[in-house]
Specification:
Number of strands of chain B: 0
Radius of gyration of chain A: 18 Å
Strand content of chain B: under 5%
Shape of chain B: flat
Number of strands of chain A: 0
Strand content of chain A: under 5%
Number of helices of chain B: 7
Helix content of chain A: over 70%
Oligomer: heterodimer
Largest interface: A-B, 110 and 102 residues
Chain lengths: ~180, ~220
């Protein structure tokens, strides 16, 4: 597609990359705001569906950004979203890891960790609420969410992916 | 043609290489192929935000490439900085084991399985977006993801949910983002420094070192 659009994809996901303090869930509301409200690349429902796709594949849980890029400008868009989302943050971590040890004795290292921890939990909660607003609609979805919550929380031996796939099967059987 | 072995394998340390599980004080150079395969396997088998457990299991317990302390220091950086733990860890550990090329190899390894699969599903989804069965299954997956994210948030925040100051920071963050729709960048630039200031060094409890009772002899 056109250059302008490709540059926008790269720019949006690079911005999200450097904002993703605390990981993928933390940056979800901002991703949704940019992708759905600002750039109109996807509808609310498409965003929910693509987020769902990302949950059933293994590995880092924000690989779904590739599917968003694909919707904007095909396979090249997918590649740009992948590079945009993972490379900037990766470069920062890479650089920091090389100088981090120089701050071994700094008491601020612990301040940073202790202070950022509740912020990260807050961002994760915000991401959960943001997905829930589109994903929770009617009694069946409430029941699935509660069942998966209980399963992941209390049945430690089962891979969480099984519960997520189970939610898909229940949806398939009851909602279609 | 059986001469296509990766040249790194032919490092002259071969016969003298320490046996697996030998003292971590003199780590042998990790072969690139093994680095790639190890991260590929982690990328293909880790699900649901539990990647740290998989990484620790593979890198510390099975391969012995890092000791517990070096693993935690890499994790500390991954968590304090932007980006996903999984990819940041791959980049940092890859760099520590084999330099820049190592970090690229580890990063590609951990993302390749999921990236391939998500693209296959994404292309199928794009051509079946109106299929009621596909939609119903994805509505179920979306609802399940909410349940899983809630569980993971409670698990990661179990310490924070027990301290009123942390609960206050969590509530302020959620209110700003979900209800006042403040952009993430402003939340990070305002709540972040305040939270770190609250935990400034003079406010920290002394680290939990075992008390040394070194009285004057």
């Amino acid at each position: 597609m056109n250059l302008q659009e490709n540059l926008t994809v790269l720019g949006v996901f690079s911005l999200l990359s450097v904002l993703a303090v605390g990981g993928g869930a933390a940056v979800l509301p901002e991703t949704k705001a940019l992708v759905v409200d600002t750039h109109h690349w996807l509808t609310d429902d498409q965003f929910r569906d693509i987020y769902g796709l990302g949950q059933v594949v293994p590995g880092p849980n924000m690989l779904m950004v590739m599917v968003i890029g694909y919707h904007v400008s095909g396979y090249f868009g997918a590649l740009l979203a992948y590079l945009g989302f993972f490379v900037p943050a990766g470069l920062i971590s890479w650089g920091a890891s090389r100088i981090w040890d120089h701050f071994e004795g700094s008491p601020w290292r612990r301040s940073l960790q202790e202070g950022l921890a509740p912020l990260v939990v807050g961002l994760m909660a915000a991401g959960t609420i943001s997905i829930a607003r589109t994903a929770i609609d009617g009694a069946t979805t409430v029941a699935i969410a509660i069942a998966v919550f209980l399963g992941v929380r209390f049945v430690k031996k089962v891979n969480p992916a099984i519960f997520v796939l189970g939610g898909g099967v229940v949806g398939f059987l009851t909602l279609s | 043609m059986n001469t296509s072995l990766p040249p790194v394998e032919a490092a002259p340390t071969g016969p003298d290489a320490p046996p697996p599980g030998a003292a971590p004080t003199a780590p042998a150079k990790v072969p690139m192929a093994e680095l790639f395969i190890t991260f590929l396997i982690i990328g293909a088998t880790s699900f649901g935000g539990g990647v740290v457990a998989y990484l620790r299991n593979a890198l510390v317990l099975q391969k012995g490439w890092l000791d517990e302390e070096r693993f935690l220091s890499a994790l500390e950086i991954s968590q304090a900085l932007p980006g996903l733990n999984a990819t940041n860890m791959a980049i940092i550990v890859g760099d520590r084991l084999r330099g820049v090329v190592g970090s690229v190899v580890a990063f590609l390894g951990i993302t390749l399985p999921g990236a391939t699969l998500v693209m296959v599903l994404g292309v199928l989804y794009a051509s079946n977006a109106k299929n009621p069965y596909v939609n119903a299954a994805l509505i179920g997956v979306g609802a399940a993801a909410v349940g899983m994210l809630t569980a993971v948030t409670f698990q990661i925040g179990r310490k924070q949910f027990g301290k009123w100051i942390d609960v206050a920071i969590i509530l302020v963050t959620v209110t700003l983002i979900n209800y006042l729709h403040v952009s993430l960048i402003w939340v990070l630039l305002t709540v972040g420094p305040v939270a770190v200031f609250i935990y400034r060094p003079s406010q920290l409890e002394p680290p939990s070192v075992p008390p040394k009772q070194e009285t004057v002899p």
